Amino acid sequence: MTARLTLINRDYTRLWFGQAVSSVGDAVFSTTLVLWVATVLGEGQSWAPVAVSGILMASSVAVLVIGPLAGVFVDRWDKRGTLLRTEVVRGALVAVLTAVSFLPADALPAGVWLALVYATVLLLHAAGQFFSPARFAILADLVTGEADRARAAGIGQATGETAWIIGPPIAAPLLFTAGLQWALLFNGLTYAVSYVAIRSIEVPPAVAAARGPAGRRRDGLRREFTDGLRFFTRSRFLVALLLLAVIGQFGVGALSTLNVFFTTDNLHADAHLYGYVGMAMGVGGITGALCGGRVVQWFGARRTTWISLLVSGVLLVAYSRQTGFLGGVALLFVFTVPLTVLNTAMAPLLLAAAPPDYRGRVMAVFYPVTKLASMLSAVLSGWLAGSVLRDVSGSFGGIRFGPLDTILAVSGVIVLLSGVFAWVALPVAAADGGTAADAPAPGNEDADVVAHADGAEFPARVVHRSDDLRGSDERGSTE
Question: How far apart are CA 34 and CA 51, in angstroms?
């Protein structure tokens, strides 16, 4: 008998393969754009840092503006068809930018180049807002059972983390030796591979029949969006998950903003060693992702959620007290493991409160709000470190503290408090992995429903470590 590489099942394996190739393209594309704008287009220009930040802003605008509305259409449309159409659109966008990039950098004014880059990033992320919830829905159909769905979440996170370890080293030499156009072309080809992989997937006939015809009754965009928002806000369980994610985001967001300064100032390391910090987090993310499914299987999704938050909070406080580079890197690796396990545990809890007809709209509320929390956390921590707490220093009980370690320590306490909140607010499991979700059932808003957290792959990080620029649905566990 010939051995075959199969992850969970054939269709999930094909979906995963598309993710693996696409995630590498994601990392290459994001790194390429930042490097090109910073070192080629904006070389020697004072506006270069602002130009790079504009790329990040374009991606955030798409998530916050398009994301909430995209869920309505995802719930209306055939999920597999939505994935295929989205890949065609994204591939076409990259193809246009690739064609223009064959022009010399000085052939167009810098403003025109930036407008093209920003527009492409904006539209790619806008399309990604349709892709993410559609993939979330189809994953729930392809993978069944708590153990397998938790494994799918872990595999997805590990694949994304691995892509971001190997992608950037590919991007830099590809850009500076072959040119921008070839780096972009590489990214476009990954969309083609993803398209072929998705097209080969077969949705179970029972699932397709249960969904009914594509032309089901529609109440209008505004009505369906309002219904989805009402469904979300009336679910104490969903609201608790959202608050939990937002609190955790505010706690962890400071780390991504201040860690480079903490490395040089508090860990007393040269700036060129900062890459090892990112590598430690990447390896920790892979470790946590691979262990997450088994941990959820052992302890259940709810218990794993609050335990992961409590452990992450304690480790972040401990990291804030580090003064040596090796100890800091080691502790950062350990900190990232439970943080990634958290994303695996949150997946089945979220799916528990998201009926099939509402999955798109549930994600269309959840992800933009956590994205906004991430942005606010980054801005707030940077502002505190650069202004209000800039000159803070002293000692207490023989422990010295400064602005950076103080902010990170407070952030750890916030993560710890979010763990306590999860412990108290999330319903006690009725069975192993089961959770009572009190949202009104679709079509019967006066009744309560009981949903079971049987696991699913979470399409967007609950606690983000960083954001990609490509507009894909993946960065770690997002696919």
Answer: 9
For residues 72-81, b (16+ Cβ closer than 10 Å) or e, as one string?
bbbbbbbbbe
Chain-wide mean pLDDT for the chain? 76
Nearest of 73, 207, 206, 189 to residue 138 by alpha carbon: 207
The angle at the Cα of 256, spanning 252 to 258, to the nearest 5 degrees, equals 105
Count the neighbouring beta carbons within 10 Å of the beta carbon of residue 347: 31
Helix residue ranges per DSSP H, 234-271: 236-265
Q: Which of 62, 171, 58, 188 is nearest to 114 (CA)?
A: 58
Encoded tokens for 285: 């993310």
H helices present in 37-142, as ranges? 48-76, 79-101, 110-142
Cβ pair 277, 263 in contact under 8 A:
yes
Query: 403-425 and 236-265 are packed helices; what angle lies between their axes, rounded to 10 degrees?
Result: 160
Nearest-angstrom CA–CA distance, 316 and 409 = 7
Question: What tokens were used for 169?
Answer: 């080293």
Residue 448, strand partner residues: 440
In three-state secondary structure terms, 394 is strand
Distance of CA 45 to the CA centre of its chain: 32
15, amino acid identity: L
**Percent helix / strand / coil, the chain, rounded to 5:** 75, 5, 25
- Cα 447 to chain centroid distance, Å, stands at 33
- CA–CA distance, 238 with 242 (Å, rounded to integer): 6
What's the pLDDT tens digit per position in 265-319?
888 888 677 767 777 887 888 888 778 777 887 888 788 888 999 999 999 999 9
The pLDDT tens digits for 25-65 are 878 888 788 888 888 888 777 787 778 878 878 887 888 88
User: Could you tell me which of 253, 244, 321 has the C-alpha nearest to residue 466?
Assistant: 253
The three-state secondary structure class of 400 is strand
Round to whole Å and give the CA distance between 348 and 244: 15
Per-residue tokens: 127? 């399309």
pLDDT tens digits, one per residue of 177-213: 888 888 889 888 999 999 999 898 887 655 554 454 4
What is each CA distance from 149 to 139, 156, 254, in whole angstroms?
Answer: 8, 11, 31
| Spatial CA neighbour of 241 closest among 392, 421, 382, 62 | 421
CA dist 314 and 98 (Å) reads 46
Chain centroid offset of residue 212 CA? 31
SS3 for 48? helix
Q: Which residues of 435-455 are buried (b: 16+ CB within 10 A; e: fewer)?
A: bbbbbebeeeeeeebebbbbb
